[in-house]
Amino acid sequence: MCLALVLIGRRASWHPFAAGAWHSIFAAGVWPGVILIGGTMPAFVFRAINWVLAWFDKPAQVDLEAQRLLSGLHVTVAVPAYNEDPALLDRCLYALVNQTRPPQLIWVVDDGSAEDYAALRQYWVRPWPSGTRIRWSRQHNQGKRRAHAVVFGSVPETDIFVTVDSDTTLDLRALEEGLKPFQDRKVMSVAGIELGFNSFTNFLTRMQWSLAATAQAVIGAAWSVAGDMYTNRGPFALYRADMIRKILPAYRDEFFLGRRIILGDDSLLALCASHYGKSVQQLTAFGLTMWPENLSHHLRQRVRWARGRTIRNFWRIRYRPVSSYCFWFTVTGLYPFLQPVLALGILIAWWPLTEPSIGRLILVGEILSVPNALRALCFRRSDETLADRILLLAIRPLASAWGLIVLSRAVRLWGTITFLRQGWTTRQEGPELVMQKTELKEALT
Q1: How far is CA 280 from CA 59, 213, 241, in A?
Q2: Residue 231 pLDDT > 90, yes or no?
Q3: What distance lies between CA 118 and its chain's CA centroid?
Q4: From the CB of residue 272, how many other CB atoms can be counted at a distance below 10 Å?
Q5: Strand, coil or helix: what is 430?
Q6: How far apart are CA 71 and CA 424, in angstroms?
Q7: In the CATH scheme, what is the code of domain 1-445?
Q8: Do the Cβ atoms of 24 and 16 come closer than 8 Å?
Q9: How far is the C-alpha of 35 from the C-alpha of 12, rounded, in Å?
Q10: How far is CA 419 from CA 176, 308, 438, in A?
Q11: Which of 20, 340, 413, 430 shows the greatest Cβ crowding within 10 Å of its Cβ?
């Protein structure tokens, strides 16, 4: 961080004093640098706060008494399915049934899929030796939230609701680890750590792994330390059932400007959890989901996220107290969105004096990405080689640029403009990711 400020400050002072003219302090050569420092300083400071807070995020641990308490909780897993590849859904259910801490109930809700799940339903709907029961229901297409609501409103004995996406495979100990923070009665929700099952498929999935690892190890960790998650992870999260029942009507039927909102399920649940208590993440609870493997799928997914985020930001500013971390993260999040416009205007207005600043600004951005990338190495995978970890660091600058320029600017802008288009942007024509036969054979063996 200090090195970054030195590099920018050097640009602010070098030109006028090298010329040896006092009056040039007030000339165009110095003011671009001064303005750039003032314009970029808040972003640097907030990044530094996130990075420092992240180091205090530790996974919850339990003693024997707490473990007995957690073992007695009734756990229900809600699995909405919409045009999912049957093999991926099969793998999802297999992982849930074989957890070290099995749930009492797994409930699949088919949200009007065109896919035929008859064979899966026939096989899975039964009591299992672990004590887990599986239920299966179908509704006409109404969206993920109403699929969740079917489960949330129908199991009054449940203590903890778990949401798992149909393309997500939980780690063997995911539920056991994810329940641990609930020993604190103030904890209302726990976000699992999202990994890509297909992280190493191609360069795009590797870039998504780089972005996701940093987001969870740095930004998400800061939210967790504050007990105020900006959003949970849709693929895998856990919620205290009493909290869910309080907000179920609003969750099922949220309206904004007269339109029913169906996106932003995970962010709304995190917002409500923070309102009633604390929302945290558990660094040892892993869910492996399927990330988009082509550019079209990737961008459409991010547009959907941006639309949900736009509406949620209104509620965060309105309902979260000014003293909360989430409130300030939301407010300051608008600044980095506009900051590049300011920097570009400065570079153009004082061109060509600002020409050397371009390279330095790029260098500063890359320097700032290094600590974040190193922090992301806290996640270890059994299927990850040393070469994979080296590549994770190597592609961080490119992934950071992709996230900054494309995802956080262009895609977010389009999602903001079109936020009232509430609907699926993916899987409308059927599965977009299909488990290959070779992958299925490897999974079974």
Answers
A1: 10, 16, 16
A2: yes
A3: 32
A4: 22
A5: coil
A6: 37
A7: 3.90.550.10
A8: yes
A9: 9
A10: 37, 7, 39
A11: 340
- Nearest to residue 12, comparing CAs of 41, 35, 33? 33
Average pLDDT over residues 323-348: 72
Q: Give the 3-state secondary structure of residue 249.
A: helix
Q: What are phi and psi of 194, to 5 degrees?
A: -95, 120
CA dist 122 → 240, 253, 300, 443 (Å): 31, 32, 33, 21
Query: Does the global pTM surpass 0.90?
Result: no
How is residue 256 written in tokens? 């904004």
CB atoms closer than 10 angstroms to residue 320: 21
Asked if the model's pLDDT at residue 117 lies above 90, the reply is yes
Label residue 97 by pLDDT band (50, 70, 90).
Answer: very high
- CB neighbour list of residue 233: distance below 8 Å, 6 or more residues apart: 191, 192, 193, 194, 266, 287
- pLDDT single digits (tens) 169-190: 999 999 999 999 999 999 999 9
124, 136 contact by CB (below 8 A): yes
- 262 contacts 143 by C-beta, under 8 angstroms: yes
Going from N- to C-terminal start, the domains of the chain cover 1-445
